[in-house]
Input
Amino acid sequence: MTSQPGELLPKRNAASVGSTGADPGAARIPARLFGPGMSVAGQDVWLRADGSALAVESPALPLPCDAVRLRRAGFDLKGWELSWDTAEGVYALQALSPASATVLTSLLPPSLNRQLQTHLQRHRGGRTKRLLGWTALGIFLSFPLLLFAAFLVWSDAVAGWIADKIPREQERRLGELSFAQMKTGMKLRDDTEGARLLRELGGKLTQGSRYSYRFHLADKTEINAFAMPGGIVVVNTGLVAATRRPEELAGVLAHEIQHVELRHSLKAIIKHSGVSGLWMFATGDIGAGMVGDTATRMLSLRFSRDAEREADTRGLELLHRAGIDPSGVPEFFEILARKSGSPPAFLSTHPVSSDREQTLRAKIGALPQKPTAPLPWSPWPPAM
Amino acid sequence: MSMDVIDYEIFGNEMQYVEIELDPGEAAIGEAGAMMMMQDGIQMDTVFGDGSAQQGGLFSKLLGAGKRLLTGESLFTTIFHNEGAGKRRVAFAAPYPGKIVPVDLSEIGGTLICQKDSFLCAARGVGLGIAFQRKLGAGLFGGEGFIMQKLEGDGMAFVHAGGTLLAKDLAPGESLRVDTGCVVAFVPSVDFDIQYVGKLKSALFSGEGLFFANLRGPGRVWLQSLPLSRLANRIVLAAPAAGGRGREEGSLLGGLGGLLDGDE
Output
């Protein structure tokens, strides 16, 4: 690579020091000399070192050992530079390769050896400081990633905490906004008998709630129902048609109402934006699209399953409080499970329905006995 | 290492390209995407890594490619080989306004350390490697980051940087304070470090930032007058589409608005 004369350490390298009969404890070290009137690339020379004096060979140049300054050199700081002043200017001699640097430091004359020791001492002293510096840098650089990881781990708690800070009025407006957006894509059947019954049933279930609920019937064959933050609940006609008695519809409504009461969608929104936002922050938006999205989706799925279970349980309690027979809920899931091999959209993120049905039946059994009156509406399903 | 001796000619003023003349059998390596044109008889061959280790195994190739990835270059290098009978020419263009600097590696001692991404092309046999900045301060505040590019060999190499380029020879012990980000390249005998501007007032209000890059001789250094990031910043600031001021479009005040605003 470097065009040194001959091989790197000819004849008397570190290993042969002392064993070469004629000149024990001496070495010729390849180095590069820089000085006034010389080429900017320097000149390859041999530095002769024997532990008591230094001399430059070819061209022979006096090296005033007492006036020489020693310092680290080279981009990787592995070499050494000797520099000294003359009448013409400053001369510098650099031994940059690790091998020649090692030989040089082992054969320095006493005065320079003292400088070397101070250097090494300072280096040792500075090591702790450097280590501290690198550690601090590492922490600083990985901080956003740590933050992201922490959010992933405690996302439920964090989202819950943030959701608690959001006033209900804000939540309601958020719901209105998303409903307005969604409304353009669906036909509402709010003036039918079915919608009237839906509202009546909803009113019965949400008595005394902090939210003011609105119930809508959407003209869609898909078996689906969803709740938006703030209390807007939309039920598809397909779902109502699939129920065999009003108690089953009441079960679905109770479930959706609990999503609202427990602020599930609000928390999901907070989590989504938190995860993608923090991911962008952590990575500087590089690849945020792919990894961030995947993480978000996985997270929302897990969130949904937990949330669904919670809504199921609390929905049963709500039905129980309202004096409605809760056995309509597992019945409805039975229908769903039988309906088709692939679960309907409404169930895509939900626990497997047959498991769910069993869990629900067990939970109903655990509820205290209470007389329930069957809901009076017939014929069922109502006209829509 | 066998180096090809290549003749070259640089064209253009602020947006340059370099035309390299290859004798039969000679080759040049170029940064992926830098080729502008080549004459008949020149074979283009893309290799994994930097193309310098012709005998190297898979591992050394992978290592070379990894290094290139670190320095922000493409994983592949393109070799332009003259298979024809006579002299043939291939040209490489600079990717943004600035100057192309020809560096004869044999003349500067065999090694050049340069800014990431500044490599444009070289004679075949020049090795592209990385040089890792071991000084924490210089890495953080020196404007060049922790990873720089190392060109090794004794042939011609061409590097490119923004604005006007200045080559300066530093005598032993002579030092030069440079705005961070303006350092393009230097030889390993030069000591590259940072230096605090000195006064709090200067640090805050001089606009030079907290640190200068300090280059200490002996050896040659290359400086650029206009780092690309600075140019890009000004362009974005002036671009209406990107939310800039877009004064030239003529506002309600028209030319007067421009007068009131002043100009830089």
Remarks:
- The CA atoms of residues 91 and 119 of chain B lie 14 Å apart.
